[in-house]
Design brief:
Elements: E1 2-6, E2 13-17, E3 22-24, E4 31-33, E5 48-49, E6 52-53, E7 84-90, H1 103-116, E8 125-129, H2 141-152, E9 160-166, E10 169-173, E11 183-187, H3 192-195, E12 198-199, H4 200-208, E13 216-222, E14 234-238, E15 244-248, E16 263-268, E17 277-279, E18 288-289, H5 290-300, H6 307-322, E19 329-330, H7 333-338, E20 350-353
Parallel strand pairs: 7-8, 7-9, 9-13, 13-16
Antiparallel strand pairs: 1-2, 3-4, 5-6, 10-11, 11-12, 14-15, 14-20, 16-20, 17-18, 17-19
Length: 366
Amino acid sequence: MLMLIDCFHCRRQLQLPDGARSIHCAFCNAITHVEEPRSFIAAPAPSPCGNYARPPQPAPMYSASYGCGVPRVQPQPPSAYGTKRAVICGITYRNTKKELNGCINDAKYMQYLLVHRFKFPESSILMLTEEESDPCKIPIKSNIMRALRWLMEDCKTGDSLVFHYSGHGSQMRNYTGDEIDGYDETLCPLDFEENGMIIDDEINETIVRPLPQGAKLHAIVDACHSGTVLDLSFLCRMDRDNQYVWEDHRPRSGTWKGTNGGEAFCFSGCDDAQTSADTSVLSKVTPTGVMTYCFIQAIEQGNATTYGSILNSMRTTIRNTGESSSGGHVSSLITMLTGLSIGGLRQEPQLTSNKTFDVYRKPFSL
């Protein structure tokens, strides 16, 4: 008997022969592993999740790939709203070959920054990490996408939204011709080997295109290959002399990737072709994502008056550290799978936006 499964990399449907535990994708050459036979289990009675009840679901099954007891449930996020809302996601991929060290630290630091520096209500910040006891908040793909939809729900003029992600990032071949370099950028949820990565097109469709006039979105993405991970139209290409030009990344096909009138900005850990480090070199105390640490440091040290000043501050800190360090773990799936590594911190944080502006004159605020 043949079973249909999705290739973990390109998401094409493949026919898995009965009894096989892996299959090679002829399209992208990735190998998808099946850890255990799949079977259907009778659905139990509905049970509460957070403040919501959910409809009957299959009995929870657990991720064999990670062995960390991640339930495959369909929960709902909390019902906290306000003019300032945030989704913060930190994934360490515990007990796997892809394990990172600083991502949950990043999530906690970002939460503290938003609450104490920018006055975000704690009840309006949705945290997704492996430490959460609520299954709604485990950073599997369905939960992350549901959280992003929650972030945009009832969004209106005057709202300030933040999406912070710290974890693995990757790339996959683009077949639509919408990407200048031929690759889509992706985020890797905890269950990406089973349920696939989150593609930049999905992120753009969920939190960029619906953004209404008078609302603003800031994404802070600390992952490899994350330069254009929101598929925003323009990238601020800055040189070492802090001179910049805006590169036009609008799809050649004419596909609309802009907002519904709102402003969208993304600070990302590196260019699309680079990797991002996860290290204790900067803090001297505990592991963090390099980009998240430098972003927070720029704000705390008063170097966040404009978007350009933040970008310069992050790049200067990384450049100065990279010249004297041996680097750290990299949050790149490609690097982990191929065994490649980097010497020193060579990443260059990027800024993308749905429109161009003077980065040295536009004030930064959340």
